[in-house]
């Protein structure tokens, strides 16, 4: 029997899908602790009992949101890998940063959800930790920092985390950083991409003597 998440994905116009979409945005804006099911139900325009009928308790819905986000990130990483296959490491990095920034800027709840998971651990027991570890492994292999997903050094993991966290913070922190730069949203995106490439491409492509 398909899970609730599978049913929502299979029918984007269904009430389950509408609730999931609203939950992603609200959990991403307020975090798990400060989000209530009543807030989500009000956004969708349904009563609280309808939300429970479609998704169960708050933790069930949050777990589905994190699973949805984790799977979506993996699909994006697969897409990036397909685009950069056979290219030089520098070119792979440039394309990956462009595509990942475009995805995250278009889905700002995603970096917010990840950062909430990092810094606001709660007792609900649901995190993105396992998925993030899988993403790190995939990126490390794609960037030739490891021979395979089972043999990734601590140094390689830390370097990937540095890239990942830099991207997340630039995007989640737009409302804080952009006024400092005195620019508009579109130019901020371009500046972030250029800055990430300026710092990260040489860091990964320059050979140590």
Give an overview of the whole structure.
There is one protein chain. The protein is an all-alpha fold and about 210 residues long. It has a domain at about 65-205: Orthogonal Bundle (Tetracycline Repressor, domain 2). It contains eleven helices and no strands. The longest helix is centred in the middle third of the chain and has 27 residues, at about 60-85. The mean pLDDT is about 90.
Short description:
The chain has 209 residues and is mainly alpha-helical. Helices cover 77% and strands 0% of the residues. Helix 2 crosses helix 5 and helix 8 crosses helix 9.
CATH fold-level name of the domain at 63-205 = Tetracycline Repressor, domain 2
What portion of the residues fall into strands of 2 or more residues?
under 5%
Task: Calculate the mean pLDDT score and round it.
Answer: 88
Give the strand tally: 0
SSE pattern? HHHHHHHHHHH
Which outline best applies?
globular
Q: What is Rg?
A: 19 Å
Structural class: mainly alpha
Largest sheet: none
Rounded to the nearest angstrom, the distance between the terminal CA atoms is 57 Å
What is the oligomeric state here?
Answer: single chain
CATH class of the domain at 63-205: Mainly Alpha
Outline the low-pLDDT stretches: none
| Helix percentage | over 70%
Number of helical elements: 11
In CATH terms, what is the architecture of the domain at 63-205? Orthogonal Bundle
């Amino acid at each position: 029997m398909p899970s609730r998440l599978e049913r929502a994905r299979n029918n984007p116009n269904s009430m389950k899908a509408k609730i999931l979409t609203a939950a992603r945005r609200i959990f991403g804006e307020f975090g798990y602790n400060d989000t209530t099911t009543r807030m989500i139900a009000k956004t969708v325009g349904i009563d609280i009992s309808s939300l429970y009928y479609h998704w169960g308790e708050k933790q069930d819905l949050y777990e589905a949101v994190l699973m949805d986000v984790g799977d979506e990130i993996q699909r994006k990483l697969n897409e990036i890998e397909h685009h950069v296959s056979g290219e030089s490491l520098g070119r792979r990095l440039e394309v990956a940063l462009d595509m990942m920034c475009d995805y995250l800027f278009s889905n700002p709840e995603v970096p917010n959800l990840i950062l909430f998971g990092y810094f606001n651990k709660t007792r609900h027991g649901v995190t993105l930790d396992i998925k993030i570890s899988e993403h790190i492994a995939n990126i490390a292999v794609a960037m030739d920092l490891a021979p395979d997903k089972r043999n990734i050094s601590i140094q390689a993991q830390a370097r990937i985390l540095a890239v990942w966290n830099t991207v997340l913070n630039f995007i989640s922190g737009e409302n804080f950083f952009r006024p400092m730069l005195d620019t508009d949203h579109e130019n901020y995106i371009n500046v972030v991409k250029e800055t990430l490439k300026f710092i990260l491409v040489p860091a990964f492509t320059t050979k140590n003597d």
